[in-house]
Amino acid sequence: MGRTDRASRLIAAPQTTVYDALLDREAIEAWLPPDGMRGRVEWWDPRPGGGFRMVLTYLDPTDSPGKTSDATDVVEVGFADLVPGERVVQRAVFEADDPSYAGTMTMTWQLTPAGEGTEVTVTATDVPPGIAQADHEAGIASSLANLASYVETPSAKSPTR
């Protein structure tokens, strides 16, 4: 079994709002890319057995060479389990020639009620060894901060699936 990385954040939004943002294409494009990246979803199928393909582009690839090309990470994500309002389990595979990025990483997004908000815990298992643990945990924390900003602001779009 590979490495496990984790990050969590308390988000001031109801579980259903957070869950909906995990399964909305426009929302994912807005909040999932960590700082220093932008994302574009190429295809989207939000159901168990479905998934999506995302191209993540580094805004400045100088110090962060991509896994797929010098400036990009391309990832195919399958939805392995969807428990409305509670959990999203994804299986992610990076497109990369370097074998240190090979394999399937499982990302579990667990949503737990916390007062008037939601504790979101992300657990990544079988993380490819080419992904530095500190960088990965910082990236997850950045995505969680983006998710919080997305769902906590009054102007957040209502997800449509």
CATH architecture: 2-Layer Sandwich
- What general outline do the C-alpha atoms trace? globular
Q: Helix coverage percent of residues?
A: 10-25%
Count of runs of 4 or more consecutive helical residues: 3
Percent in strands: 35-45%
**Mean pLDDT, as a whole number?**
91
CATH class: Alpha Beta
- The secondary-structure class comes to alpha+beta
Element string (H = helix, E = strand): EHHEEEEEEH
CATH level 3 topology: Alpha-D-Glucose-1,6-Bisphosphate, Chain A, domain 4
The poorly predicted ranges are none
By CATH, the superfamily comes out as START domain
What is the total number of structural domains?
A: 1
Alpha carbon gap, first and last residue: 34 Å
Tally the beta strands. Answer: 7
Largest sheet: 7 strands, antiparallel
Strand order of the largest sheet: 1-7-6-5-4-3-2
Protein name: SRPBCC family protein
InterPro entries: ASHA1/2-like_C, START-like_dom_sf
Family: Belongs to the AHA1 family.
Domain Activator of Hsp90 ATPase homologue 1/2-like C-terminal: 13-152
